[in-house]
Design brief:
The chain is elongated, with a radius of gyration of 16 Å. Helix 1 runs antiparallel to helix 2, helix 1 runs antiparallel to helix 3 and helix 2 packs antiparallel against helix 4. The protein has four helices and no strands. The protein is mostly helical and 142 residues long. Helix content is 75%, strand content 0%.
């Protein structure tokens, strides 16, 4: 947690924008992974997708909290993309999204001067890379 609610109020716009983008990306993933889990061909895959979804919920909550602490405002949620139409297209788009998110989170971590925000993006990027590996596995074994 941030040490005081006003300490970073004048933080740079890029950090705020990165947190907002992350919040919306996580919100989208939470929504799509629930759909994808219900399309999974086996219970084992469904369970793993739901486990990944739980990580995304945790990331969402972390980024939401940081955004609120930095701005004093609740973030505006906006889903601009759809989910995959079927299991395989959903897995492929999830793999691509996770890989893109890893790169974005690394960049966001480098761009902020706030240690807790940097740490949160760094930890989430490691989780997202793990998710990408799972989606790649599903692509090759379904």
């Amino acid at each position: 947690m941030l040490s005081t609610s006003h300490e970073y109020r004048n933080t740079n716009t890029q950090t705020i924008n990165n947190l907002l983008k992350a919040i919306n990306g996580e919100y989208h993933a939470i929504y799509c992974y629930e759909i994808l889990a219900n399309q999974a061909p086996t219970q084992e895959i469904k369970d793993k997708i739901l486990e990944i979804r739980n990580d995304e919920i945790r990331h969402y909550q972390t980024f939401w909290s940081l955004y609120f602490q930095l701005t004093g405002k609740e973030p505006a949620l906006n889903i601009t993309e759809g989910c995959g139409k079927d299991y395989m297209s959903g897995v492929k788009s999830s793999f691509m999204d996770e890989q893109t998110t890893v790169d974005f989170y690394h960049t966001a971590a480098r761009e902020t001067q706030i240690p807790i925000v940097r740490s949160s993006f760094t930890q989430a990027s490691a989780d997202e890379q793990n998710h990408a590996v799972w989606f790649l596995y599903f692509l090759n074994h379904s």
